[in-house]
Amino acid sequence: MAPNNKTLGHVAIIGGCGFVGFNIVNLILERYPESKIAVLDVRTDVNRLDNSSVSYNQCDITDFSALKELFGKLKLDTVIHTAALIPMADSANSRKISYKVNVDGTKNLLAVSQETGVKAFVFTSSSSVVVGDVWEVINADESWPVLVGKDQPEYYSTTKAMAEIAVLEANRSSSSSLLTCALRPAGIFGDHDNTSLLRTLQIRGAKMCFQIGNGENLFDFTYVKNVAHAHLLAAEALLQTHTLGITPLDSERVDGEAFFITNGEPVYFWDFIRRIWILRGMPEDKTFDLSKVWVISITVGMFFATLSELIMGLLGRTANFNRLSIKASAMTRYFNIDKARMRLKYEPLFGLDEGVQRGVRQMVSQESTSEKKG
Amino acid sequence: MVSAGSVVHYLTHPTELRAIIQWKLYHLPVHERDEKAESENTKKCFYFLDLTSRSFAAVIKELHPELLVPVCIFYLILRGLDTIEDDMTIPLETKLPILKGFDKILEQPGWSFDGNHEREKDRQLLVEFDCVIQEYAKIKPAYQKIITDITKRMGDGMAYYCDNAEHNENGVNTVEEYEKYCHYVAGLVGEGCTRLFVEAGLALPALLERPELMESMGQFLQQTNIIRDIKEDYDDNRRFYPKQIWSQYVDEFEDLFKPENREKALNCSAEMILLALHKVDECLYYLAGIKEQSVFNFCAIPQTMAIATLNACFRNYALFQRNVKISKGEACEIMTQSTQNLKLVTEVFKKYTREIHKKSSPQDPHYLEISIACGKIEQFIEKLFPSQKAAKPANAKTSEQIEKERAVEKENTWELIYMGLAVLATIFVCSISMVGVAYLAGARFDLLWQELTSGTLFPKDAAETVVTKVITSTATVDAGHVEL
User: Fold this and answer.
1) CA distance A308 to chain B (A)
2) Global ipTM
3) Predicted confidence band at A372 (pLDDT cuts at 50, 70, 90)?
């Protein structure tokens, strides 16, 4: 996309060395060459760019006073908050830490943003905030209720939901002119994927060619550059509203709103997986044969997953093959992005298949370089 | 005549047989032609309709009386035009002026044409075309205007393709050209029909504001026909698959039909079907704009037949060997479901979309795109008819409430701990007092302690003793006599 002369001012990317944040930094450089970028992250040694427009600031968002000092120094116009802690396993301790980072950290950022006169605050939420303990989420839109606590089976999603609520409450709050909005991406994948959706998906069972459920479950995936694109649209919309200084019509409003962001191309979950297997290259002695796919019914899958959880639990380890992963691969889960299309003028820049091809290509080249190194 | 093959087919597919019987017995036309009130000339036109149309005659004859004759005449005029375009034996210098001036011919009472080849199947229609012209003169001027306009544009389009040596030699090159061709021969029909429906007040005028919807209606049908007829067209020395598509798989068009290129041919046809699937959501949207049942049936039946045909062609190598058809039973079932409401029509679409998806081959380069196209159709159907009830009104919690809940939860946890401690404390106090009472009553705890420490209750070598005993007793039995 051609660079335009608009600017996001001085923009901070919280988690700018992470998967989504890094892609946002790159897109800002490409699209708003006038903008000044401050990356804030707990570790700034990965995904680091050597560019004079980007400053790197190591900081911990749970440390309020340090954050306050940094914000006072930076004098930011825009904050894009992508940082979150995704716990690997569920324990009391991991819950405590993720609450501290995801909820308290976000509240800290909101408070210092309000105090230091930030104009626009874009928060990376998650589509899972509306996904309860169900097997079907069909074409869900923003009218679905946000679930926390008992209604929300995943603690990570609870923290994201709480943070999102805090972000949207901070919009136009009496004390400041800060405008906020939340984006809820679904199934992010792509280049520099250190949460490695693609890798997780490709490793599991390429050798076995299995499928759980009837294979008719549609699922939303989103190529990371489209997610980055949506963030910039949202930031731009908030800044514009801020400049105009009038409250937009309810039907056009971006501030104080949440938006689902996907590729707009729900696909059958297992087709997506097979595409990755095939692009990645099947194991040498295998060709993918549709008639030989090993179809495991959901009930059987859940039974063995429970068994695996029990056995691994006795051995004191976390089971990779668990009920949650069965559910993640056999449930229907896709969203309606009309709101983002209408209000943010969001349209995915990259098609899903193109995204998968790019992602897999990048992953393969990364693997071959690390092999050489090793 | 019922063939042995079909007897076997329907014996093994009883649901299809049932569908046929159901359709024949229970289908009631929304409107019925009143033949008694028709003139001889009108009857003759309907005779030609039956003669020249296989699939459309039935639906046209059940149309609302207001549009019955206009649509029949519209069909015959376009059929006449098509018969001239198709006939390769007519020299260009005769053909082009007729095609370009066909709208004027409609104003010439008595015009007919006998220049078609003897074997041209619809030749007779043009030989007696004056009956169509005579009937055309009787319909409302508003309808005439629409029909003339479409006839003119279609005639010009056909003339362009006939006069295009490149097209005749190599067929269609790009996908854009392919869709343009489909526009002339089918998209325009969609436009003409829609304008007639709206003029008659039987469809929402909003349909005219979204011209891409009526275009897609025509495109979807025409593309399906082209996909299905590949072998027949090839045998007639014609090709409509765009080169842009088939050249990705084979060097020469005829290579598609070679057995060694089986997979390539299947992937090529799959890409053609993918192209057609992109039109489906707009077709369904269009159908939502039809107000009258007979018009709905007229529009919906060809569409559902088309998706079923695409499913029959999808990854079916027979496509390159003969004409692929859906069975009569399947057709009757589809017709029954297409003559009621949009909900049922979307279910037909969903069923065939899923069947297509199920057959899709992961090795096909367009595998994921086909999956996406199918998913898009399913999502669109969900938009029309959501299968999940609208979620409860978001009863949004504020951060404050959440904090409170968390505080309460924490309190609860502590409460639990306190209660546990209280229980333990109670048990402890009770035990102590019971022991105390026992002591006062003279219980000898010192003896108990002594016994415990000296190992009376849990003798240290108890286990060993047991094992030795067992071994000894076995040995004793083996020895066969008693020692003591």
Assistant:
1) 30
2) 0.88
3) low
The residue ranges of chain B whose pLDDT is under 50 are 462-484
**Residue A271 Cα, gap to closest chain B Cα (Å):** 7
Number of domains composing chain A: 1
Of A130, A140, A290, nearest to B361 by CB-CB distance is A290
A138 to chain B: which residues are within 8 Å by CB? 382, 386-388
Chain segment A115-173, per-residue pLDDT in tens: 999 999 999 999 999 998 889 999 999 999 999 888 888 899 999 999 999 999 999 98
Residue A356 domain-assigned (yes or no): no
Note the pLDDT tens digit of each residue in A306-358: 888 888 888 877 777 788 888 888 899 999 999 999 999 999 999 999 999 99
Structural domain boundaries, residue A129 = 10-189+221-264+333-350
pLDDT for res A282: 66
What single letter denotes the amino acid at residue A362? Q
- Chain A residues with CB under 8 Å of B354 CB are 216
Structural domain includes residue A278: no
Residue of B nearest to A159 (CA): B402
Q: Which residues in B lie closer than 8 A to residue A265 (C-beta atoms)?
A: 372, 375-376
- SS3 letters across B265-319: HHHHHHHHHHHHHCCHHHHHHHHCCECCHHHHHHHHHHHHHHHHHHHHHCCCHHH
CA A122 to chain centre: 13
Whether B181 is catalytic: yes
DSSP string, B172-240: --SHHHHHHHHIIIIIHHHHHHHHHHHHTTSB-THHHH-HHHHHHHHHHHHHHHHHHTHHHHHHTT---
Select which of B46, B113, B129, B181 is catalytic: B181
